[in-house]
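The protein record quoted in full:

***
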Amino acid sequence: MVEARRISVCVFIFFVIALILLFYPGVSSAEGDCLVRLEHKNTAAEISPGEISTESVVKRSIIAESFLRANHKLRKEEAWEYASYVMESSKLFGIDPFLIASLIIKESTVKRNARSKYAYGLMQINWKVHKKGLRSAFNQIKSLKDLMEPRNNIMAGTYIFSWYMKSSNYDVKKALARYLGKNGKKYISKVLGVYNKMGNSYKLAKVKGNKENAES
């Protein structure tokens, strides 16, 4: 009787552990596979002209200017185009556009064809790790070639970072460390430094705008 009870307890414990492993991906599982569990947004959406506010235009301008300072070979049209993708991704995934732009500057120096050993594009995405999750989330991203397109790359990078923010309980430093793949203090400091500069530029622009409105 006691032996039978022990066997039942062991079977129950084994069953519980199996369920945990099945439904709760641990650290050892590929983080890219976890992305499919993120609530899917309408990744094909565009920001319509009617939804573009003065605030968005100012932020987009600051981002474009920051891109041009980071990469002197970048054309103004490209900087403005990439900034529009940042604003679009920000709206879709709820990430501060200045934070997205700061990641782009740090990761690739705003070079669309940037490649490292494992990472690709403006936001230096590890295709091998994340391709399953990205293919599931984006109809327009099915291959590495698709990922290299600026809009797709910024969308994908923002999507990945939004998952890291969510899984890090919205701790920006922890999310940045996960995006990097390790706890790099210099990396985090650099990204946040660029982010703060853009934030300060935006505050100054708002003050200037309010002053001009008051005088008019």
User: Anything to note?
Assistant: The chain has one domain: 34-215.
